[in-house]
Amino acid sequence: MINGSIVAIVTPMHKDGSVDYASLKNLVEFHINSGTDSIVAAGTTGESATLPHAEHVEVVAQIVKMVDGRIPVIAGNGANATAAAVSLTKALAEVGVDAMLGVTPYYNKPTQKGLIAHYKAVAEATDIPQILYNVPGRTGVDLLPETVAELSKVSNIIGVKEATGDLSRVPVLRQLCGAEFQLYSGDDASAREFLLLGGNGVISVANNIVPRQFKQMCDAAMAGDEQAAIQAEASIVPLYSDLFCEANPIPVKWAVHQMGLIENGTLRLPLTELSEEFHGQLTQAMKNAQIEVK
């Protein structure tokens, strides 16, 4: 099972917009050395929406090679067209990933019936474990617990990343989907409570810059030690909001650059680098979290 502290890793880029694989290797080693349990490659935080199909697969393939079996790699395989998601899934199945994470089709606003048909088609394209991804604030569609329960009957659909921040869904999903179905938080601010309620892990943005503290929090919360979990994340809680002062991954990519882990904070249009007005507050939050800023 894939559980614990999972980083939704950024995709470093050179000033010309090409992928910076040297910096990406630095990040992979940083996370493995920091105790991160798993990596999500080419997800939302990895700017999947601006990676063409072939490049998307190559980024994932390179991360798999860099990780070299030391921790699991989860590949983003979502698309707003089912045929595109199936094609991407088949290509990713060839590069050695341990699981895939498929966001609900965005912009189209499919019905729950459409979501079921979409995810079943993707799951049938491979035998690699599939994780559903619900983030209605970005996609415009909510994957309801009853729909997740129906999809949990598919043998290789193993879990869901729930990014609504609605903690009332955790016990409902657990009851509907059973003890073996994996529940992942996709909301850093409510992740500790999510885990204490029985969640299996967190796919995190903040983990990009505070992996050790985040790992400590996850381990404590999953062990049911609420006080230790609170203590572990005390200094990093302000980051949960400051890393969303502009659309993710704008702030976190800037922060990773400030730590000297990547060459620069370049993003692909339509995303632009963090506005100067937010530099001060994010820098202070990083310092408060004992992060060394260059």
What does this structure look like?
The chain is α/β, with parallel strands linked by helices and 294 residues long. Helix content is 42%, strand content 13%. The chain has helices spanning 21-34, 53-67, 82-92, 112-124, 136-139, 145-151, 169-177, 191-196, 211-222, 226-233, 237-242, 250-258, 279-288, and strands spanning 4-8, 38-41, 73-76, 99-103, 130-134, 157-162, 182-185, 201-204. Strands 1-2-3-4-5-6-7-8 form an 8-stranded parallel barrel, surrounded by 5 helices. The longest helix is centred in the N-terminal third of the chain and has 15 residues, at 53-67. The chain has a single domain, classed as TIM Barrel, CATH 3.20.20.
User: For the record, what CATH class applies?
Assistant: Alpha Beta
Distance between the termini: 37 Å
Order of strands in the sheet with most strands: 1-2-3-4-5-6-7-8
Structural class comes to alpha/beta
Number of beta strands: 8
CATH topology: TIM Barrel
Give descriptors for this structure.
single chain, about 290 residues, alpha/beta, TIM Barrel, 8-stranded parallel beta barrel, 8 strands, about 40% helix, globular
Summarize it.
The protein is 42% helix and 13% strand. By secondary structure, it is an alpha/beta fold. The protein has an 8-stranded parallel barrel with strand order 1-2-3-4-5-6-7-8, surrounded by 5 helices.
